[in-house]
Amino acid sequence: MSKSTDERGRIYLPKDVRERFGNQYRIVELPSHVALFPVDEDPLDGLRAAVGDAFEGADGDELKTEARERIAREIRNEADSRSQNREE
Predict the structure, then answer these.
(1) What is the enclosing helix (H) or strand (E) of 9?
(2) Pick from 48, 24, 49: which is nearest to 36 by CA?
(3) Which DSSP symbol is given to 13?
(4) How many domains, the chain?
(5) Would you say which domain of life the source belongs to (predicted)?
(6) Do 76 and 46 have their domain in common?
(7) Dihedral through CA 36, CA 26, CA 46, CA 19, nearest 10?
(8) What are the residues facing 59 on neighbouring strands?
(9) Same-domain pairing of 65 and 33
């Protein structure tokens, strides 16, 4: 399928594409092209559909909090590691 942008840079997707994939997309710039990836209205529902029952019964806020805590630990560990390497 080939589409052109209008004077404001907008791309209009055909109705059948919107009905199949939805109205929200993530634009990903790659070295040789641009790709559109559909975004679920509820990203957690999309994640649950992708990974099955791995998050069965988990609350979205709890998942976010846990993810943020893990990221913070990883950042602290990396910072500590870099600090130790500089001291050596």
Answers:
(1) none
(2) 24
(3) P
(4) 2
(5) Archaea
(6) yes
(7) -50
(8) none
(9) no
Would you say how long the chain is, in residues? 88
Check whether residue 31 and residue 65 sit in a common domain.
Answer: no
Q: Are residues 50 and 68 in the same domain?
A: yes
The band of 69, judged by pLDDT with boundaries at 50, 70 and 90, is very high
| Spatial distance between the Cα atoms of 87 and 81, rounded to a whole number of angstroms | 10
**pLDDT digit string (tens) for 7-40?**
999 999 999 999 998 898 989 999 999 999 888 7
51 and 35 within one domain: no
pTM, full prediction: 0.47
Q: How far is CA 74 from the centre of its chain?
A: 19
Q: Give yes or no for a contact between 41 and 24, defined as CB atoms under 8 angstroms apart.
A: yes
Could you tell me the residue range of the domain that residue 28 belongs to? Answer: 1-39
- Looking up tokens 């634009």 gives 27
d(CA 80, CA 74): 10
